[in-house]
């Protein structure tokens, strides 16, 4: 039986409650990753292990200002770490942050069942 309920009051037997702070941070990260250009940038940084703005804009054929804007959003979301080396800033993927996001979203997904028929979030009541 499905019942609409306040997500903060959800708990399942033998499971800890959802960490809404972790989920909020995860949604910020997912929002940052939701853009195809940022995903391409992240893939390039991942393959390169470390890259600066010039490496990225040349590899992806982007403008400098657009590359910097996208990197800024990835940095704010915590998906990449920035390290200064002389006059350049190098970016690396923060794998720990991505793993935390996957765990938080997985925990949330184990608590809810989305009913796509009426476009509302429903919680499966297993009691």
Structure report:
The chain is of the alpha+beta class. 52% of the residues lie in helices and 19% in strands. The chain contains 5 helices and 6 strands, in the order E-H-H-E-H-H-E-E-H-E-E. It has helices at 20-33, 36-48, 53-60, 64-77, 95-111; strands at residues 2-3, 51-52, 80-85, 88-93, 113-115, 120-124. The strands form 2 sheets. The protein has a 3-stranded antiparallel beta sheet. A 3-stranded antiparallel beta sheet has the order 2-4-3. Helix 1 crosses helix 5 (95-111) and helix 3 packs across helix 4. The N and C termini lie close together (9 Å).
- Low-pLDDT runs of 5+ residues are 1-14, 123-127
Instruction: Identify the strand order in the major beta sheet.
Output: 1-6-5
The value of Rg in angstroms is: 19 Å
Please tell me the overall pLDDT: 79
**Tally of extended strands?**
6
Helix content: 40-55%
Structural class, from helix and strand content?
alpha+beta
N-end to C-end Cα span: 9 Å
Order of helices and strands: EHHEHHEEHEE
Share in β-strands: 15-25%
Overall 3D shape: elongated
Largest beta sheet, briefly? 3 strands, antiparallel
In short:
With 127 residues, the chain is an alpha+beta fold. 52% of the residues lie in helices and 19% in strands.
């Amino acid at each position: 039986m499905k019942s609409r309920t306040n997500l903060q009051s959800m708990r399942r037997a033998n499971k800890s409650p959802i960490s809404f702070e972790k989920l909020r941070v995860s949604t910020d990260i997912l929002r940052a990753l939701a853009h195809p250009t940022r995903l391409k940038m992240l893939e390039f940084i991942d393959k390169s292990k470390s890259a600066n703005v010039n490496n990225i804009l040349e590899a992806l054929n982007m403008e400098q200002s657009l590359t910097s804007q996208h990197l800024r959003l990835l940095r704010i979301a915590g998906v990449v770490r920035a390290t200064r080396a002389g006059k350049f800033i190098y970016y690396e993927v923060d794998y720990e942050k991505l793993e935390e996001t996957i765990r938080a979203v997985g925990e949330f997904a184990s608590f809810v069942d989305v009913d796509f028929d009426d476009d509302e979030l429903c919680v499966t009541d297993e009691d």
